[in-house]
Each structure stands twice: as structure tokens, then as C-alpha cells.
Specification:
Layout lengths: L4 H14 L7 H8 L3 H13 L3 E4 L3 E4 L1 H23 L8 H9 L4 H11 L24 E2 L8 E7 L4 H9 L7 E7 L6 E5 L2 E5 L1 H5 L1 E5 L2
Antiparallel strand pairs: 1-2, 3-8, 4-5, 4-8, 5-6, 6-7
């Protein structure tokens, strides 16, 4: 059964916010979608009626196997387009997520697989996230959030969680892209900001931003 563009966006957003794991509060989903909690609740009811999600009151929503399968199909299209825009059209890294989100809904399966073939079946998108295969399977490499890392530890940036435009512009200006190696210099007390070092320059990051940067400590 076809799923509307609006429902696809909700399913994809649930997956991205939850990182495939914990329930997503409806209030957080509404904020991500830019709608009122009432509007989000109405869509949640429709998605639950379609057996694409399960809603647990006071906890949030999570994807059913059918909903997860649909979400990963959308994500495959979006991440392949992201790879194409960066690698072949040389679009700025920070702009690619929004542009690829627009293209994901206008791409049927034959175009998706032709695009994958043209790109050589890339493993990850420009933001470091793995690209699901044609069957909707995906393996997510383990990672830590930057705000979980102790000072004096060097890490490689693996991927950016929920790479919205404002966040990506902020990170791009500071050179904090996937594949970059940074060193944790300091963590301010009382949940204060983090300071990292990149190429001899110190960069201060708010805790929320640091939590959106997923990293792996260097051996």
C-alpha cells in the first residue's frame, strides 16, 4: 500500500530521532516536523491505525517492523541522493540534507537502484550514516556521543545525528565533518560546554551540539 509523503516524513523522523532504538515522545516528533503537538498526535493515530507505529501513552512512539521497513526505504533514497549531490554536483555539505529530503519522495524504485549502481553502491551518506541496502537492511557501526567522551581523548567523527541545516552550517564553518580527528580538551562543570582541538585550534561546543556528533575514540 502506498504511503503518502507526509507519512514517509514522520516515519523517517521517528527513525532518525530514536536512532532505531528508544521510543520518541510525540512532543519531540512535533518539534522535528515543525507542527503542533495536536497535529502530530493526529498523524500518530493514523500511523498506528496503519500498523506502522506503536504509541505508548506518556512514553512515545516506536516503529513496527512494517514501519521500520518503510522508513529505511525512504532513508535509502535520501542518503543515495545526498551522496550524488556532494560527490557529483559538488553541493555544499551543509546544504545536502535538506535538498536530498526533497528528492527522496519523487524517486521510484527503478531510479533509486539505478542511482545506487551509478554511485557504485556507496556504504554511507555525506553525514556518515550507513545506507540501507535494496532490501531495507542496515548495519549501524557503534559510536559514542561526543559529550560522553572524557577530556584528553582523541576521537574520529563518524556521523552527525539529525543533520538539520543550521547544525550542519555551524559544523561546516568549524571543519567538524565526518572523518575529522579532534581531541577533547575540556568539559565545563555543571553541564557546561565542551572544548575540542582541531588542527591546533580550540573550538567550544554546546552540550546539545556535542551530543549530535557521534565519534569513535582512536586506539
Amino acid at each position: 500500500m502506498p504511503v503518502s509523503e507526509s507519512r514517509e516524513m514522520y516515519l523517517k523522523s521517528i527513525y532518525e530521532i530514536a536512532a532505531g532504538e528508544e521510543p520518541v515522545p510525540v512532543s519531540l516528533l512535533a518539534k522535528r516536523m515543525g507542527v503542533s503537538p495536536v497535529s502530530a498526535t493526529e498523524m500518530v493515530k493514523r500511523l498506528e491505525a496503519g500498523k506502522l507505529i506503536v504509541h505508548t501513552p506518556y512514553k512515545g512512539v516506536f516503529l513496527t517492523p512494517a514501519g521500520l521497513h518503510r522508513a529505511l526505504k525512504v532513508i535509502r533514497r535520501q542518503r543515495l541522493w545526498g551522496r550524488f549531490l556532494v560527490d557529483h554536483l559538488k553541493i555544499r555539505w551543509s546544504q545536502v540534507y535538506d535538498l536530498s529530503c526533497r528528492l527522496e519522495h519523487a524517486t521510484d524504485i527503478s531510479v533509486t537502484e539505478a542511482l545506487a549502481e551509478f554511485l557504485g553502491h556507496p556504504a554511507s551518506c555525506p553525514y556518515g550514516h550507513p545506507i540501507p541496502d535494496a532490501a531495507g537492511n542496515v548495519e549501524i557501526p557503534p559510536a559514542f556521543r561526543l559529550n560522553e567522551i572524557s577530556p584528553e581523548v582523541e576521537v574520529t567523527i563518524l556521523r552527525i545525528a539529525q543533520p538539520e541545516l543550521a547544525l550542519c552550517e555551524y559544523l561546516e564553518e568549524r571543519g567538524l565533518l565526518p572523518g575529522t580527528i579532534v581531541k577533547i580538551v575540556d568539559e565545563a562543570p555543571y553541564n557546561g560546554p565542551f572544548t575540542v582541538e582541531l588542527d591546533g585550534e580550540e573550538i567550544t561546543l554546546g552540550r546539545e551540539i556535542a551530543g549530535r556528533i557521534l565519534v569513535a575514540p582512536l586506539a
